[in-house]
Structure formats: C-alpha cells, structure tokens
C-alpha cells in the first residue's frame, strides 16, 4: 500500500477514487459475464463444426487411397476463389466472422474421369468449408479468452485491491483527523483552564 497523506484533501481524493471503482466494477462484471456467455456459444459452435468436419473427413478416408490413382485427383482440380469474412463485436472485442467461401472446380471430362470424382470434389469442398469455419471460430475463441483474462484481472484488481485499499485509506484518514480534532479540543480546554487560572 502506497503511503498516503493524512489530510482532508487526501480523504476526498480517496472517496472519489472509491466511488469511481464502485461505479466501474459492475460494468466490468457485466462484460465478464457477456464474454463467458459468448465463449460458451463459440465453444458449442466449434464442437458442432469440428464434428461435421470429422464426419466428412472420415468419409473421405475410406477412399483416399484412390485419389492418387493415375492422376485422377490433381491439386488444380479445386481451388478457393473467394473467401468472405466480416468483423463482429462482442462486449467491445472485435472478432472475425466467417461468412462464405466460393470454389472453382476445373473442367474435367466426365467420360474419362471416374464416377466417384464428383463426390470427392463435393466432399473436399465441404471439408475446406468446415476447416475455414473452424479457423475463424478458433480465432474468435482466442480473442474472447484473452479479453476475458484481462477483464477478470481488472475485476479482481478492483474487488480485491483497489476498493478495499481505498476503504482502508478513508478509515485511516478519518481516524487520524478525528484524533487531531479531539487533541485540538483537549488542547483548547487545557489552554482555557490555564487562562482561567492565570486570570484568578
């Protein structure tokens, strides 16, 4: 605890600080609750998207070995042409919001290529779509958790340090000023008696 001046001005300063801390604390607590609620929503959404991706990937794994069959599935057959993302705001935190992705499938001869290629391309699109969603959701989680940590630290600082410290300082100053006032009254009475005796 920093050393404080035992004056009325310092007492007023400490009271003003206490009011400010008590005014900001509910706002910080509300922000903390909003962040916790949003993190739960993002966690649920992430689990859903991850489960969907794993389901698609499990289906792909069944016939992944034939992808390399005679150059049927080449790296240029599917590419992302447009990725759309926006910005959202949760309790003052800017987060990325996945909107959409567009793919381009290169032309291939359906007579020459195997029948399963259309299904493979469709599943790869879905897998990429879920993967991009997951990346966005994971970034949301990262940013929200970071802000929650900062907000929680501030709540703890106000609740456990700043408010009790200001209250203790106010009490200490009040006791000191009360003692000074009592001492002044006692000195006044002693002085008055001394003057009365001197006058007699």
Structure description:
By secondary structure, the protein is of the alpha+beta class. The protein has a single domain (8-181), classed as Orthogonal Bundle (Helix Hairpins), CATH 1.10.287.3240. Helices cover 70% and strands 13% of the residues. The chain has helices spanning 8-62, 116-199, and strands at residues 78-90, 93-105. Strands 1-2 form a two-stranded antiparallel ribbon. Helix 1 (8-62) runs antiparallel to helix 2. It is rod-shaped and about 130 Å long. The mean pLDDT is 87.
Indicate how many domains the architecture comprises: 1
Radius of gyration: 35 Å
Helical element count?
Answer: 2
CATH class: Mainly Alpha
Please tally the β strands and state the result. Answer: 2
Strand content: 5-15%
What is the correct CATH architecture? Orthogonal Bundle
Order of helices and strands: HEEH
Please, what is the average pLDDT?
87
Strand order of the largest sheet: 1-2
Query: Which class do the helix and strand fractions yield?
Result: alpha+beta
* Low-confidence parts: none
Shape call: rod-shaped
Largest sheet: 2 strands, antiparallel
Helix content: 55-70%
Query: What is the CA-CA span between the terminal residues?
Result: 53 Å
What CATH calls the topology is Helix Hairpins
